[in-house]
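Hi there, hope your week has been kind to you so far. Do you reckon you could talk me through the fold, stretch by stretch? I've dropped the whole record in just underneath, so have a look:
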Amino acid sequence: MKQMKVQLRSSLVQSSVKRIPSFLCMVFVLLIASYQVGTQKAFANELDLQFDRLAKVISPPRLSGREAGIHIEACEPTQSPGINAVEGEDYYCGVFTVPQNWDEPDGPYLDLAFITVKATGEEPASNALIFLAGGPGQSSLTKPIHGYQRLQENHDIIRMDQRGTGFSQRLGYEECLVLAVQNDALPAQIEALQAATFNPLAEGSTSPKLEELDIPVLNEICWAQFTEQGLDLSQFTTAASARDMVELLKALDYEGFTLHGVSYGTRLAMTIMAQMPTYDDAPALRSVVLDSAFPPSIYTIAAFPRKDHDFMLQLLAECRADAGCRQAYPNLDMRLSALLDRLEDEPLTASGESITLDDVAKQMMMVGASQAAYLPSMIIELEAGLLDTYLALRDGIIGTDPAQNYAGDLDRSDPVQAFIGDAYDTLGGVSGLEMIVYLNFSLVEADPLAALQTVVAENFSGYTGEKINAKLATLTAKAIAESPYVAQIQADFAAEMGIGDPEDLAKLKLAKQRLSVAGRLAQPLFNTIHCVEDIPFERFEDAVNSYNDLAFPQLSDLALSQLMADLCRNWPVKAAPIQVKDPVSSPVPTLILQGAYDRRTPVFMGKRAARELENSTYVLVPQSGHEVWTYAGDCVGQIAAAFIQDPDADLDLSCLDPLQPQWVLPRDK
């Protein structure tokens, strides 16, 4: 009946409209158009209230008006490699202006930002070390350099943001938003961009997850905005960035160089290795370190289902290889498969708890620290309907590494240093080191406690956020005011910056806001790389076939593969030749560092790189995830430094032995 009434009313409206004189229809249309224009102006006026400040923080990508070559510039306050480092003496910053298209050397040009940290020794080698960040779309300039402390005496450390990232004409939704406002885009387009961006002016702002975005809509908007700037987005490729890096080293007059790539940065490194014979008068590539390898030959869409899966294959293989684990937990593969099948049908209820498949899968994926050693025992207990080990792991009672002091000589009797150490312990790796940098910057704010709370809120949510916030809740303003650690940081920073007047504080705040944007993944650049080099050569069916071959499909899904398959809609970059997927062959000495439980670039990717590179050394780092070289003083840092200092020498890997899982056996309980 309701449907009939609606249809009847609709027909009455239609018949009434037919009787309206044509000139009234025209007036009606004009009124609607006027209302839309008024709404658009009101929306723009409201946005303009913040736009001036936003435009100072976010610099949209543009073609350069400079001549090609090196241009030295003042560094941002946040770009110092250390509190006591002196700009000009210990480090310097600059812009490298390069052709947008290397086949058109006369321009147009792009400005790419770089930082050089000078070697500390009296007779440094002419062999620079250049860092290549991951993503694609991450910034190199925002990454800490703690891993290079053993190498800084003899090597300059160079970081340049790849074209389209960080401070190098970043292709991000934030930059797209600024351009959209400048170009009077439709309110609906600006609203879509606002929902997709991180706002550096708003406390607690976060970047949405990829699956939360309407990528095709955003692609259409940002393609128009970026190309209107004269940008040829098909030139923002790994091959172009490889040429940028080598030409920078050539312009800086280095005789040789070493590459350190992480994650996607290893693809960039391997591309440089493949293209070295084509570069004219290039400095010599002396060695390469690939941390968490992602070779160009990997087919991305098909690989995604294995990311949250293959770590378990590695863990089970390690258990089988250990006599004690194998005897205590026989047929663990089959028993895990049966357990996951049961949990898929219904939750496990015991001890007043209801445990779902998602709960168990989430816990299994938390294999950092020393949790891996407990997983075989947990699987067998869950099989028997027991929750003891699962609950102890979930609640952090067991499986936590001893605190590691990667932030210097922290005195944990000081509440501030204890919190910083706890934050690192929670995150670990590069994420922990980056967090320390942000926390230290917060301590020079007028209200350090509020600044710390903002940093945590902006960067972490869910379980990780809850854990760090629980630690932060124990920190008081009084403890911060009385902390000698805080006093030293504030004194050193004030001495370096000459802080004391509002203008200096404003400069620092602006620099930190710029850093907060530059350090985030540039999604449109991510799209460009994959739409040029991967997705044209793949089908979603490849992911389905990969998923169907998994031993434990409950640990994975096809959601990310589907997102990747749709990534290039309304983003018409030119596909690279199919040869971009060819294996890379190079005689350059290469160290491949692979985390055993890496869930972003799984073990099979590191092994693939080792097969392709004939002069490589493959090192599997036990109980480690993604990005394993983060600190100079630990085992991996020592191995990497020894390799770079002498790539042809035999490596001492004995420090890895204590890192092997110490399996928890029934008699140990």
